[in-house]
């Protein structure tokens, strides 16, 4: 799911004209070494915090059917996660960085949810909303200064971006539907088991009276005890 959110953000920023103007959109950690190797105007969208929104955790399981309407699997409900990004702009001059950051900010604040056309993989299959919260005051996670300190770089103007996305639940295959009936066969007392075969009709015996031999179609037994034939007593010979 995380890489699918990355792809959705990349497509969103590409539509704003960044890639057309030669600006790269990357998801690398903006460390000191990375900044030294950078050679082109770049917008860096760095994921640094992932947390589950436990308030949206569901219960139960959904059912998955095939084209013929048969139940083939059961799927647990999706779980929601907050992905927090640090968005920065990199150029040769601070003025160019601010221009890029302003363009990114304009695009992100105008988008509350990622458009469905930008979603791929499991996010597209689920058909659920992937929400965006840009530069919000309620963003959880480490402060920007702590992130820069951990990266070993100097503090830089940045945007906080939180994406709330669903993670598809686990799918467990169901047993196939029953298509064959139960066939009951028994051998007589003293009968040699080696002589028992499916073609030997004399070796097929039911536990109920007044019921014909089921043959190859099988026998499921009477369902209503009030109308069921009496069962043979222990030791009684079948006529």
UniProtKB/TrEMBL annotation:
<dbReference type="Pfam" id="PF14065">
    <property type="entry name" value="Pvc16_N"/>
</dbReference>
<feature type="compositionally biased region" description="Basic residues">
    <location>
        <begin position="228"/>
        <end position="239"/>
    </location>
</feature>
<protein>
    <submittedName>
        <fullName>DUF4255 domain-containing protein</fullName>
    </submittedName>
</protein>
<feature type="domain" description="Pvc16 N-terminal">
    <location>
        <begin position="4"/>
        <end position="179"/>
    </location>
</feature>
<feature type="region of interest" description="Disordered">
    <location>
        <begin position="190"/>
        <end position="239"/>
    </location>
</feature>
<dbReference type="InterPro" id="IPR025351">
    <property type="entry name" value="Pvc16_N"/>
</dbReference>
């Amino acid at each position: 799911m995380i890489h699918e959110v990355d792809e959705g953000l990349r497509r969103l920023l590409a539509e704003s004209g960044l890639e057309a103007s030669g600006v790269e959109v990357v998801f690398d950690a903006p460390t000191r070494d990375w900044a030294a190797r950078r050679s082109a105007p770049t917008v860096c969208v760095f994921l640094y915090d992932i947390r589950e929104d436990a308030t949206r955790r569901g219960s139960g399981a959904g059912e998955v059917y095939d084209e013929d309407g048969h139940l083939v699997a059961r799927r647990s409900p999706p779980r929601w996660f907050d992905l927090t990004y640090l968005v920065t702009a990199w150029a040769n001059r601070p003025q160019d960085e601010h221009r890029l950051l302003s363009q990114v900010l304009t695009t992100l604040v105008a988008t509350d949810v990622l458009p469905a056309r930008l979603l791929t993989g499991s996010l597209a299959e689920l058909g659920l909303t992937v929400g965006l919260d840009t530069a919000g005051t309620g963003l959880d996670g480490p402060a920007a200064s702590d992130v820069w300190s951990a990266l070993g770089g100097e503090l830089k103007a940045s945007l906080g971006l939180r994406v709330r996305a669903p993670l598809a639940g686990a799918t467990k295959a169901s047993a196939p539907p029953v298509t064959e009936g139960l066939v009951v066969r028994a051998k007589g007392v003293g009968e040699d088991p080696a002589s028992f075969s499916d073609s030997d009709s004399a070796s097929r015996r039911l536990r109920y009276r007044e019921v014909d031999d089921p043959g190859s179609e099988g026998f499921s037994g009477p369902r209503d005890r009030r109308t069921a034939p009496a069962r043979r007593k222990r030791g009684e010979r079948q006529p």
